């Protein structure tokens, strides 16, 4: 079974494990290597595909007169970089104008995290059509589904993948809708995400179990029923998510920042970022690769534990799978399950672990964990300076703060923090924070619940009398807002 069948197309899929490296054709539907069980990458023969010789090529795209189909692709923040993910013909592309997102200087927030003004930038992926970074990957994977003629797509989700997939299936690029099947864990999904998933008409199955159980089941069901799997183990998802880094570079005038900071859940995003930079570096399109910081929630910290406590490293592809299996077996034996208020990243067995380890090696990365309390406080802090994000995204901001305190990140380094999901995805957690409603759990951290955080901004009850209203307004002027 071992060895690589001769697949010589300019685009192919290949097992990530160097000692296996088995190749599969572009249109083969395979999510785990049939020889060794490893994840797959999409690989390109850049000689044949002729990548641009400089990233400024993509600036010319805005000005060049082009046909209307090409214009639609140029509007997408993913497909305007299509030469760097050249697996699809333009007529197959399903796009909903994803990736119109901003890299924005965050000078107000920077000093609160110990950074100098002008050094912090936020990549606001909540501005995507479904409100999270997932749309970057879905446009790519749906394009493949169309290429393959698939009409039933499925995923397990903590919320955002399901919402994004359901949206693309319902719209299907103007063609007849596809059927979306979403598996969610019981009580594990923020209201905004569930609302989207239901509204877009997805067949939504709530499983008695957590995300990890849902993922196991959806893989089995997809296999049995020939459903097209849309989780991030689908390598085309990650091809689309590379574009987040292209836009970051575009926002930095093509000069890579010093750091990319991102939350880690199923570890698809950080893996995609690593691949983006690996390719850009190989192609000579960037001279330098930024460092990567992946931030776990302390209650869902498999990567942190494996990286720090068990010393697991990519190690040129020879990472210790037995030690990882032993860790998971221990979690099972002791009943340890992922638990965090940042429900998007409540994941115990990140499926992209091997690719994430590879990205950490390539990008000289670090891994940190942050408590739920830190996540909630930093989420509110982001809001104070005119951005918004959901709790999982704020894990990155809290992790960045920790790394600056540790002096791993210098105050004058240029840092990009990826805000992965929109503020309104999880409004109930936000209102809970501000209004101090209910005791906040501090899952996995041992911290005691608090009534209010330092950035809480509870609504005040005031009688319907002008004098009372004036009194409150006078006691809280702009110089004394809270
Ligand atoms: N941030 C948000 C808002 C997410 O929804 C997710 C993952 C992550 C971060 C973690 O990203 O998996 O690439 O490390 N959400 C998935 C879902 C798992 O089902 O919506 P990752």
Describe the protein in words:
The chain has 482 residues and is α/β, with parallel strands linked by helices. Among the domains are: 38 residues, no CATH class; 224 residues, Rossmann fold, CATH 3.40.50. The strands form three sheets. It has a six-stranded mixed beta sheet with strand order 4-5-13-10-11-12, sandwiched between helices. β7, α6 and β8 form a beta-alpha-beta unit. α4 crosses α5 and α4 packs across α8. The protein is globular and about 80 Å long. The termini are far apart. The N terminus is likely disordered. It binds ligand F0G. Ligand F0G binds next to α5, α9 and α14.
Features of this protein?
4-stranded parallel beta sheet; alpha/beta; disordered N terminus; Rossmann fold; binds ligand F0G
Number of strands: 13
Shape: globular
* CATH topology-level name of the domain at 102-130 and 235-429: Rossmann fold
What is the end-to-end distance?
A: 66 Å
Largest sheet: number of strands, sense, barrel closure: 6 strands, mixed
- Provide the helix percentage: 25-40%
Characterize this entry briefly:
With 482 residues, the chain is α/β, with parallel strands linked by helices. It has helices at residues 46-49, 57-63, 68-75, 134-148, 160-171, 191-199, 211-225, 235-251, 268-282, 302-309, 321-334, 353-362, 372-384, 391-405, 427-435, 466-475, and strands at residues 11-15, 23-25, 40-44, 102-105, 120-124, 152-157, 179-185, 203-207, 228-229, 259-263, 291-297, 366-370, 415-419.
């Amino acid at each position: 079974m071992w060895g690589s069948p001769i697949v010589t197309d300019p685009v192919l899929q290949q097992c990530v494990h160097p000692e296996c490296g088995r190749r599969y054709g572009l249109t083969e539907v395979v999510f785990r290597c049939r020889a060794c069980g490893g994840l797959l990458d999409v690989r390109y023969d850049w000689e044949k595909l002729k990548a641009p010789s400089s990233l400024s090529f993509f600036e010319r795209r805005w000005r060049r007169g082009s046909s209307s189909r090409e214009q639609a692709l140029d509007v997408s923040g993913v497909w305007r970089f299509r030469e760097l993910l050249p697996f699809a013909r333009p007529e197959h592309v399903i796009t909903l104008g994803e990736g119109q997102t901003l890299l924005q200087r965050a000078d107000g927030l920077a000093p609160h995290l110990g950074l100098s003004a002008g050094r912090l930038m936020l990549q606001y992926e909540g501005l995507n059509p479904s409100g999270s970074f997932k749309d970057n990957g879905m446009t790519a994977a749906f394009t493949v589904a169309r290429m393959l003629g698939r009409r039933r797509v499925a995923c397990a989700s903590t919320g955002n993948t399901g919402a994004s997939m359901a949206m693309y299936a319902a719209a299907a690029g103007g063609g007849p809708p596809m059927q979306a099947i979403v598996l969610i864990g019981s009580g594990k999904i923020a209201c905004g995400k569930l609302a989207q998933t239901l509204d877009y008409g997805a067949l939504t199955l709530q499983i008695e179990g957590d995300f990890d159980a849902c993922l196991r089941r959806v893989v089995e069901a997809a296999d049995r029923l020939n459903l097209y799997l849309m989780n991030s183990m689908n390598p085309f998802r990650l091809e689309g998510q590379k574009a987040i880094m292209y836009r970051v570079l575009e926002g930095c005038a093509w000069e890579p920042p010093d750091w990319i900071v991102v939350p880690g859940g199923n570890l698809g995003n950080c893996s995609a970022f690593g691949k983006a930079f690996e390719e850009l570096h190989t192609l000579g399109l960037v001279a330098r690769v930024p460092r990567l910081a992946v931030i776990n929630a302390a209650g869902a910290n498999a990567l942190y534990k494996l990286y720090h406590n068990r010393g697991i490293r990519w190690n040129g592809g020879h990472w210790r799978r037995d030690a990882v299996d032993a860790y998971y077996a221990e979690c099972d034996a002791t009943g340890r399950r992922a638990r965090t208020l940042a429900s998007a990243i409540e994941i115990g067995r990140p499926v992209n672990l091997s690719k994430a380890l590879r990205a950490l090696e390539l990008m000289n990365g670090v891994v940190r964990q942050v408590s739920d309390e830190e996540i909630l406080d930093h989420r509110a802090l982001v809001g104070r300076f005119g951005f918004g994000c959901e709790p999982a995204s704020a894990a990155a901001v809290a992790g960045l703060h920790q790394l600056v305190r540790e002096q791993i990140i210098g105050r004058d380094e240029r840092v990009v923090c990826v805000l992965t999901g929109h503020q309104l995805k999880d409004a109930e957690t936000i209102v809970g924070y501000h209004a101090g409603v209910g005791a906040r759990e501090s899952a996995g951290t041992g911290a005691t619940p608090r009534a209010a955080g330092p950035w809480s901004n509870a609504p005040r009850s005031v009688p319907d009398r002008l004098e009372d209203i004036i009194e409150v307004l006078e006691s809280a002027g702009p110089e004394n807002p809270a």
